[in-house]
Structure formats: structure tokens, C-alpha cells
Amino acid sequence: MQTRYRAVFISDVHLGTTACQAAHLVDFLEKTQTDSLYLVGDIVDFIQMQRRAFFPDTHRKVISLILKAARSGTRVVYIPGNHDAFFRQLAGQTVAGVAIKRNEVHTTADGRRFFISHGDEFDPVISISPFLAVVGDRAHEL
Predict the structure, then answer these.
(1) How far apart are CA 39 and CA 26, in angstroms?
(2) Any idea what the Cα angle at residue 43 is, between residues 31 and 72, rounded to 5°?
């Protein structure tokens, strides 16, 4: 049995890393139907993958389920973060049914509006010094 939601927000999955909990996400996605799926940054971790790529079947399954949802009529919006910033150059395009955007506004059932952004663009460390961002990322690993 699947649970139905108006919107689901997923962030900081870090596919491509050993720390990723992809099996839990696969379980959730298989049991969920949603009108809108927001992927809010760091879904794929290209920073970690430059050093060591780790992409088992569960990581591929996450991507497969997201693309399947898009094909089945779910509105999928991908807002890249700092670890998957490569995708920002595709903002404004739709790839395999996934709309890639810098940010988005979500309207709730009761009419409230929420600004959706990964937020890394508002972090002065990342925007002023990419080197410090890498140092911080390595420190976080430890």
C-alpha cells in the first residue's frame, strides 16, 4: 500500500558516497505517491565522488524511482546544492521529466507560500571562498 502526499521534500541524500542511506530512501519512495517531489540539493555528491565514487545498485534504484515518478505524472523539481552544483548550469531546463531550477516557491493546500532553496548560495563561506568550503567538507568527513 502506498501513502499519498501533496508534496515531498528530499535533501542531502549524497548518492555516490558510502555514508548515503539509499536503502531507506528506496523503501520510502516505493511506498509513496506524491503530486510534487522536490529534490533540494546534494542529491548526488560530486565532491566526494571526485575522490572515491561509490554507486551501488541501491543508489541507481533511487534515481530509477525518481525518474519513474516523473514519467508517472509526479512533478519533480531538482534544486541543486553545493555538492551537485554542476546541475545549476542546467537551471531552466527539464531533463527526463525533472525540472532543474535554482529555487522554487511551493504553495500549500491552505495557500501559504514557501521559498525552496538548498541555501548554500546564502552561505558566505561557500560564496566567498570555495577553498574554505572544501576544507569544511573534509573536516565534516572526519
Answers:
(1) 14
(2) 45
Confidence of residue 4 (pLDDT cuts 50, 70, 90): very high
Sheet architecture: strand order including 94-95: 3-10, 32-40, 75-79, 98-100, 94-95
- Angle (CA) 72 61 11, round 5°: 80
Q: Give backbone dihedrals phi and psi of 98, rounded to 5 degrees, phi first.
A: -105, 120
Helix (H, G, I), strand (E, B) or coil at 72: coil
Residue 83's pLDDT is what?
A: 83
C-alpha to C-alpha distance for 47 and 64, rounded to whole angstroms: 22
In angstroms, the Cα distances linking 120 to 55, 79, 110 are: 24, 11, 29
Pairwise CA distance, residues 48 & 134, whole Å: 10
For residue 82, give every residue at least 6 positions away whose Cβ sits within 8 Å of its Cβ, in sequence order, or none.
41, 42, 47, 118, 120, 123, 126, 133
pTM of the model: 0.84
Give 3-state DSSP helix, strand, coil % of the chain, rounded to 5.
Answer: 40, 25, 35
DSSP H/E element including 105:
strand 104-107
